[in-house]
Every structure is written in structure tokens, then in C-alpha cells.
Design a protein that fits this description.
Layout: E1 15-21, E2 27-33, H1 35-44, E3 48-51, E4 56-59, E5 68-75, E6 82-88, E7 107-110, E8 113-116, H2 124-127
Parallel strand pairs: 1-6
Antiparallel strand pairs: 1-2, 3-4, 5-6, 7-8
Keywords: Amino-acid biosynthesis, Cytoplasm, Histidine biosynthesis, Hydrolase, Magnesium, Metal-binding, Zinc
Domain Phosphoribosyl-AMP cyclohydrolase: 29-106
Binding site for Zn(2+): 77, 97, 104
């Protein structure tokens, strides 16, 4: 059995993926991979996801230049979640979120409301053309 066959794919053939910055430990994003994306990620050492909205492979940074170098791939105890230890490329500090922030997890629950607490590092209009 290959390592790809050990992954517990969901009914759509996808597995959830968490991207964690290797240097800081920050969780910068959550995405999905299909079998091809996971295989390409392992082969290239670069994060390749599956975009459900576009219904195709999404090479992280293909439009923004904010690629993710993958240092390590881990799987959880149930074989149904992948953790990528990455370095976020393209900007210092790294921008993983399409909003121009370091992390997609930039809002915190305060007094019953979600509040954005992390700054925009680069205007998204200047990232995506």
C-alpha cells in the first residue's frame, strides 16, 4: 500500500490541510488537497492545493507570488488531516492570506463579535492583478 493510499480521503476525494509556519509555529491557513495535489506537494516541496471554487489544482502563490516551501508533511492519528510545516515566501513577514495578512486566522472573538486583530501587510489590490 502506498503512502497516498493510507490517507483517509473524504467522499469528494479530498483531505483537509493545515499550513503551519515552521519558524514561528503560526498556523497560517487551512485548505484542501486531492490525491494529485498531495503527490505534487511531496514531489515539488512546494504547497499545491485543490481549489474547490475553481475545481482545479492551485499552486499556492501562482498569482500572488506568495509560495509555500514545504519542509515536512505530517498526517494525524486518524489519517484524515495533513499538517504542512512551511516557509511562506514572497514577502517578509510572509503573507499567506488573500487579504494581505500573515495568517488567514486574523480575527478573534471579543464581546460576541469577530474582530480583525492582525494588520494587513500588503494591500490585496497590489498583490492580485
Amino acid at each position: 500500500m502506498s503512502w497516498l493510499d493510507q490517507v483517509q480521503w473524504d467522499a469528494q476525494g479530498l483531505v483537509p490541510v493545515i499550513a503551519q509556519e515552521q519558524s514561528s509555529g503560526d498556523v497560517v491557513m487551512f485548505a484542501w488537497m486531492n490525491r494529485e495535489a498531495l503527490q505534487k506537494t511531496a514531489e515539488l516541496g512546494r504547497a499545491v492545493y485543490f481549489s474547490r471554487s475553481r475545481n482545479r489544482l492551485w499552486f499556492k502563490g501562482e498569482e500572488s507570488g506568495h509560495e509555500q516551501t514545504v519542509h515536512e508533511m505530517r498526517i494525524d492519528c486518524d489519517n484524515d488531516v495533513i499538517l504542512l510545516k512551511i516557509t511562506q515566501q514572497g514577502h517578509v513577514p510572509g503573507i499567506a492570506c488573500h487579504t494581505g495578512r500573515h495568517s488567514c486566522f486574523y480575527s478573534v472573538l471579543k464581546d460576541g463579535q469577530w474582530a480583525a486583530i492582525d494588520p494587513v501587510l500588503k494591500d490585496p489590490a497590489s498583490i492580485y492583478k
